[in-house]
Amino acid sequence: MTILSKTPVILAEVKDIVDKIENKQELQDYLKKFTVLKKDKALALKKEISELNNPKIKEENIVKIVDFLPKDSEDVNKIFTEISLNEEEINAIVEIVRKY
Question: What does the DSSP 8-state code read for residue 20?
């Protein structure tokens, strides 16, 4: 098997993909337990974070933000382990997440 491309997806999107797989009960149980937002809200949050147009925030980080919904700066810093965001950038993320 060859991987042609990799695209990070939020857990809410994984739920749609899983419907096409056989023997999926264990995976569905996992998704039910850990998926917090419905797909439409998760996609809206993903879009809103993307619209910050911050080059430090990569697609992988956005997916983690949507899946984990960080509540404060400490939670945001756990997502951004390779780079550091300043206080203003962190607060912008936290404020957006609070709406969801």
Answer: T
The pair of three-digit structure tokens given for residue 12, joined into one six-digit string: 């809410």
Distances from the Cα of 46 to the Cα of 31, 51, 84, 94, angstroms: 18, 9, 20, 13
In a domain, 2, yes or no: no
pTM for the whole structure: 0.84
Domain count, the chain: 1
pLDDT tens digits, one per residue of 49-65 = 999 999 999 999 999 99
Distances (CA, A) of 60 to 3, 7, 10, 71: 17, 8, 9, 18
- Tokens of residue 39, six digits: 């797909």
- Distances in Å between the alpha carbon of 36 and those of 9, 19, 94? 14, 18, 16
